[in-house]
Amino acid sequence: MQAWCILPVMSPTTQLRGYVLVLVAACFWATIGLFYRALVDQFQLTRGVIVAYRAGIAALVLLLYLAVFRPRLLIVHRRDWLYFTSYGCIGVAAFFLSYIQATTSGPLAVAAVLLYTAPIWIMLWSWLKGEAPSRRKLVALSLAFVGCALVADIFNPANVAVNGPSLLFGLLSGLSYAAYSVWSAEGTRRGYHVWPVVAYSLGIGAVVLFAAQPLRESLRPLHLPGAWPYLLGVALGPSLLAQTCFTLGLAQVPTANASIVATIEPVIAALLGWLVVVPPEPLSGWQLAGGGCVLAAVVVLTRAGVNTPPDARRRRGLYQRPRVANSDDV
């Protein structure tokens, strides 16, 4: 089986490439709101149906490509099916559904802030595994979290009317987003190429997402030809390309760092709302300050990763040697 894996220690150039890939993924994710707005407002599709098609179309396109051009990459070890199933059910389906419920059951600001607790959960997980966070990483995490809260306009009283369901689903979205990030990196560490990791996780997630929707609602897009450009756009951009870039980036930078860098997504989304949406969504001074905090967090992390000597990175145990694929286990 052809393996695509990470090296024990990454060069500064490779790390920088990894951070760029994570930033590209965040840019794609920032466009999700534009697609959702069109599909909900113009075609009255439910968000649950949208995310089901989003995952399903992306998985189908990638699986068909691999089946025709790279069939050997589709081979999976028997012992790894539990990983792929967990990733698809929790890292994709539960993540997509919980965030949708968080945004529809309470204020968007609260949902956004709770979603970006994911870097905190990832850092706690790393600490439990024996990797204590550095002071620089804690500073970057604090800047990113405060920045996300400001971008979400948390000081607006109308945005912080928290209720039980919105709090529950918001926390679940943060936890499942953390699982999504950790499991995205785990696939390449197990020796798999990034494409089957993305294809199987999205495919399994899509099955769960469609199963959670009423059949009548799931069939509605088939009778709405005008909705398909938007469905294809949200599937190929924020789903397929974003997850591919994010998974590739996770093979080159630590998961906690990548999750912090990805908090630039709401900043870009706010800018798109101001530049693209008609009428424009205004940006307050607090939101601009929040964007500055997130950018500062990105600079702190990327400069730290690129400037850290290889020996220091090895001592800190930032990278793990992946398990080499063994054809006897297939």
Textual characterization of the structure:
With 330 residues, the chain is mainly α. The protein has one domain (12-316). The chain is 71% helix and 0% strand. The protein is built from 15 helices and no strands. It has helices spanning 12-29, 32-43, 47-69, 81-105, 108-115, 118-128, 135-151, 164-189, 194-211, 215-219, 228-250, 255-261, 265-275, 285-307, 310-316. Helix 2 (32-43) runs antiparallel to helix 11. It is globular and about 50 Å long. The protein starts with 11 loop residues before the first helix and ends in a 14-residue tail after the last helix.
Brief description of this entry?
With 330 residues, the protein is mainly alpha-helical. The chain has 15 helices and no strands. The chain has one domain.
Number of helices: 15
Domain module tally: 1
Q: What coarse outline follows from CA principal-axis ratios?
A: globular
Mean pLDDT: 84
Task: Estimate what percentage of residues fall within beta strands.
Answer: under 5%
Give the helices and strands, then pairings.
Elements: H1 12-29, H2 32-43, H3 47-69, H4 81-105, H5 108-115, H6 118-128, H7 135-151, H8 164-189, H9 194-211, H10 215-219, H11 228-250, H12 255-261, H13 265-275, H14 285-307, H15 310-316
Helix pairs in contact: 1-11, 1-14, 2-11, 3-4, 3-9, 3-11, 4-5, 4-8, 4-9, 5-7, 5-8, 6-8, 6-12, 7-14, 8-11, 8-12, 9-11
Task: Quickly list its features.
disordered N terminus; 330 residues; disordered C terminus; mainly alpha
